[in-house]
């Protein structure tokens, strides 16, 4: 029997929305080149590979082009599969060992809450490629551990963005986050995430970027807990709570596909 692979839509309560991730729950470690090849074959923004290690799970994430240090939606998908398929009791926490330390996910009714490290933003000069690629006048430009963050004037402008992905791929960061205050009272802020440098032109719903967006908007809005919308074509909804050097990210997930890898 081949390796089972499951596709989950994260940060949504319905199929074919949010951010799809492929999930491979393995019996033990796998060769890095094989994981990268599988991620390239799946051609989703991230594929998660994990296996049990005592009472925790070793977890790695790959885009079609590269391994990444932190990924929210594929972690959410992995935890969802552990509970859905009976690997963990519904009241047990899912604990993952990753390149970003231990990440813990817990069920909260129909939602899953993940405990992630905050990646706060420091104000920074905008690279020339960034300004040209977005063709907007930013209100703020900053840099987190992984990404550039750009605040712009409105949600309307954000939704209308048509970036030059060739130029964005030259920006020296994992991704470029563009954000604005929400025009909808249901949400505190909206964002979009562009990551062509790692093979993902636009990520539909991104957990890890909210490790920067959470602290950024918490300071501006004077709020610890916020509702966020990622305004991609598929869309995504997150709950974000800033707690010191940690950020709790809440989301829902739906399984849409189960299959088997038949190649070695």
3D structure, described in words:
The chain has helices at residues 32-42, 72-84, 128-134, 155-160, 165-168, 210-221; strands at 3-10, 19-25, 46-53, 56-62, 67-68, 94-98, 101-108, 111-117, 122-123, 140-143, 147-151, 175-181, 189-195, 200-203, 225-230, 236-243, 246-251, 253-261. The protein is α+β, with helices and mostly antiparallel strands and 264 residues long. The protein has two domains: 3-113 and 251-261, Diaminopimelate Epimerase, Chain A, domain 1; 122-249, Diaminopimelate Epimerase, Chain A, domain 1, CATH 3.10.310. The radius of gyration is 18 Å and the shape is globular. The relative contact order is 0.19. The model has no long low-confidence stretch (mean pLDDT 96).
């Amino acid at each position: 029997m081949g390796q089972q692979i499951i596709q989950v839509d994260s940060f949504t309560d319905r199929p074919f929305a949010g951010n799809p991730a492929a999930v491979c729950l393995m019996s033990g470690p796998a060769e890095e080149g094989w994981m990268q090849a599988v991620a390239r074959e799946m051609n989703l923004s991230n594929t998660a590979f994990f296996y049990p290690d005592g009472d925790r799970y070793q977890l790695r994430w790959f885009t079609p082009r590269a391994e990444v240090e932190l990924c929210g939606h594929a972690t959410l998908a992995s935890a969802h599969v552990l509970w859905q398929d009976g690997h963990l009791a519904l009241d047990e926490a899912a604990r993952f060992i990753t390149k970003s330390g231990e990440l813990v996910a817990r069920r909260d009714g129909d939602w899953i809450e993940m405990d992630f490290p905050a990646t706060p933003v420091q104000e920074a000069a905008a690279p020339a490629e960034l300004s040209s690629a977005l063709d907007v006048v930013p209100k703020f430009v900053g840099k987190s551990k992984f990404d550039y963050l750009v605040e712009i004037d409105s949600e309307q402008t954000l939704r209308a963005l048509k970036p030059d992905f060739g130029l964005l791929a030259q920006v020296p960061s994992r991704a470029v986050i563009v954000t604005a205050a929400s025009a909808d009272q249901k949400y505190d802020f909206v964002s979009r995430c562009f990551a062509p440098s790692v093979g993902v032109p636009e990520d539909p719903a991104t957990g890890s970027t909210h490790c920067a967006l959470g602290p950024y908007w918490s300071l501006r809005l004077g709020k610890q807990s916020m509702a966020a919308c990622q305004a991609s074509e598929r869309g995504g909804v997150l709950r974000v709570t800033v707690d010191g050097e940690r950020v709790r990210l809440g989301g829902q997930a739906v399984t849409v596909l189960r299959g088997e890898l038949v190649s070695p």
